[in-house]
Specification:
- With 428 residues, the protein is an alpha+beta fold.
- 22% of the residues lie in helices and 30% in strands.
- It is built from 5 helices and 26 strands.
- The protein is elongated, with a radius of gyration of 29 Å.
- The chain starts with a helix and ends with a helix.
Length: 428
């Protein structure tokens, strides 16, 4: 009987201990992450890791357990949401999820890595996990300013519903030119930019000093259908465009980081081969691609083109004079293909800086890390303990229930043993 009592107390103690371990794991993990970050080398702390990994299915979101400024953000379907999800890799090595809304495109990471601006107009603070709407939902952010205080955004004016008259002819024009705005994402203010007429804005880049904008996109609906673009350089505070040039259907602005750090050149991605919407995947892969440069003052071609792989999608930054580009490795197929960031030296070849897991897309590095070429950080795997509270509760509750059932069974045995022991004595 005494032995059974000891078993009851032992089982209850074990159950409580397991539950406390499960519930205290988040705090222990946070402390371990802080300690790891503080002991990291001065040259690698806060640097972009050389290799990324898929998060755990139960990985916490930024809102549930913020991990601080981002070293990199990428997108993958390999999460519990089973659709494209943002994955933040913090400067302390922690992995967190940024779930997207339905049909939402990837957003923009601020130049200091502290904020993530959604296309829906919501600003997510990566250091606190708080999110608030700061700009209109019709806006689509294109590029952060170098100082991280402004965002260049486009707004579609197309009619979502077409009205028809008695002769079955449309009464309105669903295709209307888009507007371009400079937005303060913190205060919610906006300023219209007179960049000329665009059916849509495909890409934009700020000059290194933040005083000039480069904007590209199809000027009208026929150009949009044919995938032809025009490039315009304009002051964000107003005035007529400084210059513009037709890019045709085989050249495009090389992304938000297309403006060279010296401020004198603007990079384009150009190719030879099949162009237009009817190109097959095989024809697109067979293109001969290069990086070309335009003089930022005149719009004239300048310098020598730099050959690149046909899988190059954009310039994400610069390492000195070397462009850092996003490419897809050609050794795998489909979902097994890997996205990489690589530096392209002028002598040819490439230096792989970051390798993402298979099926990942849209790698983004904060501007401050790009400015100091902070690559080569330690490769840290996602912590399986960096989970939301509900995950630990799902571990703790079954444990407590199992212990409760075991205690109940032991008590029943104790009661049966007591009845058996006292039965003969009462007969005597």
């Amino acid at each position: 009987m005494r032995e059974t009592g000891r078993q009851l107390r032992r089982c209850a103690a074990v159950g409580v201990a397991l539950a406390l371990v499960a519930l205290s794991a988040p705090a222990a993990t946070a402390a371990a992450s802080t300690a790891a970050d503080s002991t990291a080398g001065g040259d690698t702390a806060g640097a972009v890791p050389s290799r990324l990994h898929d998060p755990w299915l139960w990985q916490a979101t930024v809102g549930q357990r913020p991990t601080g400024p981002a070293a990199l953000v990428f997108f993958t379907n390999h999460t519990r949401y089973l659709e494209s999800t943002g994955v933040l890799v913090g400067r302390d090595g922690g992995y967190r999820l940024i779930p997207l809304h339905v049909a939402e495109d990837p957003g923009l990471l601020s130049s200091d890595g502290r904020h993530y601006l959604r296309p829906s107009g919501e600003l997510l603070d990566l250091t606190t996990g708080q999110q608030r709407r700061t700009i209109h939902t019709e806006m689509r952010p294109l590029a952060w300013s170098p100082d991280g205080q402004r965002v260049l955004s486009t707004r579609s004016n197309d009619d979502s519903v077409i009205s028809y008259g008695p002769d079955n002819q449309p009464l309105n024009d669903p295709e209307k030119p888009d507007d371009l705005f400079v937005v303060d994402p913190y205060r919610g203010t906006e300023q219209l930019v007179a960049a000329g007429t665009f059916a849509a804005h495909a890409a934009a880049a700020w000059s290194p000093d933040g005083d000039v904008l480069a904007v590209a996109g199809p000027p009208d609906v026929p150009a949009s259908v044919a995938e032809r673009q025009r490039l315009v350089v304009v002051d964000p505070d107003g005035g007529d465009p400084r210059w513009q040039v037709d890019l045709g259907d085989r050249r495009m602005l090389a992304g938000p980081a297309a403006w060279h750090p010296d401020g004198r050149r603007i990079a384009l991605l150009a190719f030879d081969g099949c162009a237009g919407p009817r190109c097959t995947g095989e024809q697109a892969a067979a293109r001969s691609m290069r990086i070309e440069f335009l003089d930022a003052t005149t719009g004239q071609a300048v310098g020598q083109p730099l050959p690149v792989s046909a899988s190059t999608s954009r310039i994400v930054g610069w390492r000195g004079d070397d462009p850092v580009v996003q490419q897809v490795s050609g050794t795998e197929q489909g979902e097994d293909r890997r996205t990489i960031l690589a530096a392209l030296p002028p002598g040819g070849g490439r230096e792989v800086l970051v390798t993402a897991p298979a099926g990942s897309t849209d790698l983004t590095v904060p501007g401050d890390l790009l400015a100091r070429a902070a690559f080569g950080g330690p490769e840290r795997r996602p912590s399986p303990f960096a989970a939301p509270l509900w995950f630990y509760l799902t571990l703790a509750v079954p444990t407590l229930l199992a212990v409760a059932l075991l205690v109940r069974r032991l008590r029943r045995r104790q009661g049966s043993a007591t009845t058996t022991d006292t039965g003969p004595a009462s007969i005597a």
